[in-house]
Predict the 3D structure of the following.
Amino acid sequence: MDILIMILLLVIALLVWRGAHRGVIIGLWVVGVVAMIGLFRFHVTSVLDLSF
Amino acid sequence: MADVVVDSSPAVDDVTAPRGGIWGLLTFWGLHAWVLAYCGVVLSAFYIQFAMGEFPCPLCMLQRYGMFLSSLGALFVIMQARRGELTTARYAQGLGMGLIGVLAGASVSVRQILLHIKPGDEGYGDPVLGIHLYTWAFITFAVVMIYVGVMLMLMPRGIPHAPAAGSPLHKLSTAVIWLFIGVIAANVIAIIFLEGFAPVLPDDPASYNLIDQLTGR
């Protein structure tokens, strides 16, 4: 999963450099954010024993 | 006769909005400083990984994603400015991408800080200048949030303005962009070695998964 996200980020950077359509760039960027948040959710496996 | 209020400020998406001057240059190079700073942070993390033998945990890697996602917003604005296609709307889109990227990264940083906040917990990895890397990451995310806020306040006067194509400053801008792309590419290679054939990174990595899997260790 991490490999896919990092490759996606590299692809987005290259698309921005090449001047790809704005919708494609922003769309892929949103996919990257969602994938990152999903992976974060996957790694959060314990409740913090803290009170606020 | 009713009073008429004349708004002399440019329209929101007015491509003829005044640009250039010292503000335009400052914001253009401010975006480069943003990208360059995160390249420096990730290269420093590489130094800690390769020279000091500390492997990045999954949360560390998620913070790198936050840094890259936010830098992509800055890169988006830089490239639009270089092509002369930057409007206030596109500038705002790029800043928005940057802001969401740092918010996502900061969420991960806060989670990792809270994991180690209890007295007696030594934290993950060795501290740098007395502060752990995930706390440094949070500080950088906070700085970018403030930066984006200031840039939004300066709009539309501070719309980035690129130097002329072929000039030394334009080449410097190109070098920063390719450094950023190179840093991401290096991370792709590093993470292939770290993750190997596993679906995700191990919680507490101590070696390169790919090498272990290929050599049967």
